[in-house]
Design brief:
13 helices, Glyc_kinase_flavodox-like_fold
Length: 379
């Protein structure tokens, strides 16, 4: 019996690696001789670096960078020495979790620290940089990150622009003379599941600005400022990418990554699956078990169980999901290669209790699944 265990993390409870270990422990109670292969997963959001390093024996590196509001923060990123690949979660340097709710200000937050992480990867000799861009606190069109990499932005008086998206409304000139030349030798992959354009009613500012602290008036100002930034970029760069899907991701960091770095967008779960070798692992398996904290209709939008199920389907391997909760519309996944789904709690309990007891509950649910499978196989 060969079983692939490929879950995402359970937010505020367990890492993907911890989830996989708990599931494996439960399965081993019933199938002590089974081949249990753990492939911790992620979808480009929180936990991407951790999952990839766990599967690929990579190195966790640390870097002090500017946080979203300019204060120093300690960020980590992943390094795969064999392939000279860096994995960067922009939320480590520019994430919403770094800004207390009362201080969130989409007009002033900057991606500068994310650019510093990219620079650290260049210093390490990266030939490929994977940038996971979920959970941002920023709405600066990626301007801060590009400034950290050498792009110079000036106002009409020739003064450097201050950080933040609103300052882009005063942009008068872009100078690329100091842009780090090493960037042209690096392949950039953006791991994201956001398809919004940079500007307009479905752009970065209207859709994501309010959760980052922008008022309705500021949303309009930021949208106009990003449009102004895109106008100037079009004057100095070979292609205008503002309307391309994904340009509005992470407050417009997707735009800058495409425009300045030539980055290619890919579903985050596909990037992680490639790095951890999930396709090869699933080949010849009898069962795949995946999971996430909340399994619902949103899972169809590129989340980990959806991506894992697609790969399993290619090899005609059944898929079972174990989730913290089964939310509205989770049944839709039954039409997308998921064969069964189980919720974690065995009875009424608070969210706090479910989170604290997640290892035990995961093991119990996995053992239950193994017993059901054993019954079915005897018929």
């Amino acid at each position: 019996m060969k079983i692939i265990i490929a879950p995402d993390s359970f937010k505020d409870s367990l890492s993907a690696e911890g989830v996989a270990q708990a599931i494996a422990a439960g399965l081993a109670q019933v199938w002590p001789d089974a081949q249990l292969i753990q492939c911790p997963m992620a979808d480009g959001g929180e936990g991407t670096v951790e999952s990839v390093l766990a599967a690929c024996n990579g190195q966790l590196r640390h870097q002090t960078v500017r946080g979203p509001l300019g204060a120093a923060v300690e960020a980590h990123w992943g390094w795969l020495a064999d392939s000279h690949t860096a994995i960067i979660e922009m939320a480590e340097a520019s994430g919403l979790q770094l800004v207390p709710p009362g201080q969130r200000d989409a007009c002033k937050t900057s991606t500068y620290g994310t650019g510093e992480l990219i620079r650290a990867a260049l210093d390490a000799g990266a030939e490929r940089i994977i940038l996971a861009i979920g959970g941002s606190a920023t709405n600066d069109g990626g301007a801060g990150a590009m400034q950290a990499l050498g792009v110079q932005l000036f106002d009409a008086e020739g003064q450097p622009l201050p950080p933040g998206g609103l300052a882009l409304a005063r942009l008068a000139d872009i100078n690329l003379d100091q842009l780090d030349p090493r960037l042209s030798q690096v392949r950039f992959d953006i791991a994201a599941d956001v398809n919004n354009p940079l500007c307009g009613p479905h752009g970065a500012s209207p859709i994501f600005g309010p959760q980052k602290g922008a008022s309705p008036e500021q949303v309009q100002q930021l949208d106009a400022a990003l449009g102004h930034f895109a106008d100037h970029c079009a004057n100095v760069l070979p292609k205008d990418v503002r309307d391309e899907p994904g340009s509005g991701a992470a407050g417009g960091l997707g735009f800058a990554a495409k425009a300045f770095l030539g980055a290619q967008f890919r579903a985050g779960v596909d990037v992680v699956a490639e790095l951890v070798g999930l396709d090869e692992a699933v080949r010849g398996a009898d069962l795949v078990i995946t999971g996430e904290g909340r399994f619902d209709a949103q899972t169809l939008r590129g989340k980990t169980p959806f991506g894992v199920a697609r790969i399993a389907q290619q090899h005609q391997v059944p898929v079972i999901v174990i989730a913290g909760t089964l939310g509205e519309g989770y049944e839709q996944m039954y039409a997308h290669a998921v064969d069964a789904a189980f919720a974690l709690p065995s009875g009424p309990m608070s969210l706090e209790q479910a989170c604290s007891e997640a290892p035990r509950l995961l093991s119990e649910r996995a053992a239950d699944i193994a017993r059901l499978w054993r019954i079915a196989s005897k018929r």
